[in-house]
Write a structure and sequence with these properties.
InterPro entries: FAD-bd_FR_type, FNR_nucleotide-bd, Riboflavin_synthase-like_b-brl, SIP_FAD-bd, SIP_fam
Low-confidence stretches: 1-8
Largest sheet: 7 strands, antiparallel
CATH class of the largest domain: Alpha Beta
Protein name: FAD-binding FR-type domain-containing protein
Organism: Cystobacter ferrugineus
Structural class: alpha/beta
Distance between the termini: 43 Å
GO molecular function: oxidoreductase activity
Strand order of the largest sheet: 4-3-7-1-2-6-5
Bound molecules: flavin-adenine dinucleotide
CATH superfamily of the largest domain: Nucleotide-binding domain of ferredoxin-NADP reductase (FNR) module
Strand content: 25-35%
Length: about 250
């Protein structure tokens, strides 16, 4: 038997919604909730519905909330034998998923869709530069499960608190080749990230770039690397969020 449905909002709120969830979603239960500082939660889900599912590192799962809202998270590990998956959620402070993360409890039942395609990290050659922010730390850790592992991968993250993100990265085992840049007003910090990036690409022009996280930062870096002569084929962009927009689902181009 499942434990009682949790509060606040992973609970389907009506008959139609419940039917929808049962038809298209998989059921899972929260097995572990580990606060990593105030800003992150390492969440482990388990469920028979997740057993024997295919997972490619970089895939997302979409957790269902009341009102048929889905929110995307990136497993940093997925074990199809036991139907167990772990992701790192950023408690950014607004929104149903962020609020849920802050209060998630062991034993809670939820509905989710996926794993489904968002970013195919298995297909990315080395050397690789991976850019993102707090929402991308789990994706960075998922690179470990690719055939190339962490070999020749450099990470660059724009973050609110370098200290909080460093602690989270250490917890999920992403420690070498990491540069953390603290956000500044009017995105001035991106000047530094952009010049470091273009310098690295001039030194190794065959490098593959993966840009994740905030949509406007990705756009800016994409333009910069294209100006630096990097071909569009070498760059994969997947926006994870954009100010003022709810529930991004991820676009790969
Ligand atoms: C493919 C994919 C994979 C993702 N993987 C992860 C992951 O592994 N871990 C993770 O933490 N997130 C991940 N995200 C991002 C996450 O889905 C979004 O941050 C999502 O908006 C959170 O939902 P919410 O209900 O808290 O906020 P929403 O209701 O979606 O948004 C409410 C408000 O908060 C703003 N907002 C959303 N995210 C942030 C943020 N990071 N900082 C500041 N403001 C924000 C929105 O712009 C909006 O104004 C992923 C997104 C995609 C598309």
């Amino acid at each position: 038997m499942f434990s009682p449905m949790p509060q606040p909002s992973t609970v389907p709120s009506g008959v139609v919604e419940s039917m929808f969830h049962r038809l298209v979603s998989r059921r899972a239960r929260v097995r572990e909730v580990e606060p990593v500082g105030d800003a992150f939660r390492l969440i482990t889900l388990v469920g028979e519905d997740l057993e024997n599912r295919r997972w490619v590192p970089g895939d997302m799962i979409q957790i269902g909330f009341a009102g048929l809202a889905g929110r995307a998270y990136t497993p940093l590990s997925f074990d199809p034998r036991t139907g167990t998956t772990t992701f790192l959620g950023y408690v950014h402070g607004h929104g149903i998923a962020s609020s849920w993360l802050a209060s998630a409890t062991i034993g809670e039942q939820l509905f989710l869709v996926g794993p489904r395609s968002a970013l195919d990290l298995d297909a990315v050659n080395r050397p690789m530069i991976f850019f993102g922010d707090e929402t991308s730390l789990g994706t960075a850790a998922a690179i470990r499960a690719t055939p190339g592992g962490m070999r020749e991968v450099a990470f660059s993250f724009e973050v609110e608190s370098a200290e909080a993100s460093r602690v989270a990265l250490e917890r999920i085992g992403v420690m070498s080749g990491v540069t953390l840049t603290t956000r500044e007003p009017e995105d001035r910090h991106l000047d530094r990230i952009e010049s470091d990036l273009t310098r690295a690409l001039r030194a190794a022009p065959q490098t593959r770039c993966i840009f994740t996280g905030k949509a406007s930062s990705i756009q800016r870096l994409y333009k910069a690397v294209r100006r630096a002569g990097i071909s569009a084929k070498q760059v994969t962009n997947v926006a994870y969020w954009e100010p003022g927009r709810k529930g991004f689902s991820g676009v790969q181009r």
